[in-house]
Amino acid sequence: MPSYRLHYFPESGNSYKLALMLTLCGETFEPVWTDFAGGVTRTAEWRRSVNEMGEIPVLEIDGAKMTQTAPLLLRLAEQYGRFGAETEDEKFELLRWLFWDNHKLTGYMATYRFMRAFTEKSDSQVLKHFRRRLEDFLGILDGHLQHNEFAIGAKPTVADISMMAYLHYPSDEHGFDFAQSHPAVHAWLGRMAALPGWKPAYELLPGKRMTNYAK
């Protein structure tokens, strides 16, 4: 079986997506904590030796460094025969929600949460704009999950793993009470947490944490 090393920092929901996917597939990985807050990913040396895109996570598979979370999730789903799609229609739906998440839900939530909780002084108007956009996206997801157990129907896929990652972090970081504001999302997060082998991000991704200014 392949060996895995995951370059991450604990607050990275994208890192959590890969850590959770590997864990749910019964695999282990060597954790490589990265000083994102200290700016290491912005250095020329790190970009030369680890990831030219300057991003976390990086997944090493048998020593080969691989980047970009969505294609890695799809690759792992195909490799392990889990959390993928079977029919052509399911494949289209999986990609539809995966791309939507990357462009909308994860894209905005990652930035909003980082600015809100892990930046000492944030622009309130920028936060207000991001919050308004997120409420729209969460409303879309809540409406979809009122009629579907998971993103593409009755079983979880990598689209669910991708969408839930940033939403499961503590509410004092992202500032939402999903049980009150988006009950279908809250119930779906519970179904994801009930999957055999599921673990929260801060358990899967150890190491020094950034200061949470929103507490």
Automatic annotation (TrEMBL):
InterPro entries: Glutathione-S-Trfase_C-like (IPR010987), Glutathione-S-Trfase_C_sf (IPR036282), Glutathione_S-Trfase (IPR040079), Glutathione_S-Trfase_N (IPR004045), GST_C (IPR004046), Thioredoxin-like_sf (IPR036249)
Name of one Pfam family that matches: GST_C_3
Domain GST N-terminal: residue ranges: 2-84
Superkingdom of source: Bacteria
UniProt domain GST C-terminal: residue ranges: 87-214
Name assigned to this protein: Glutathione S-transferase family protein
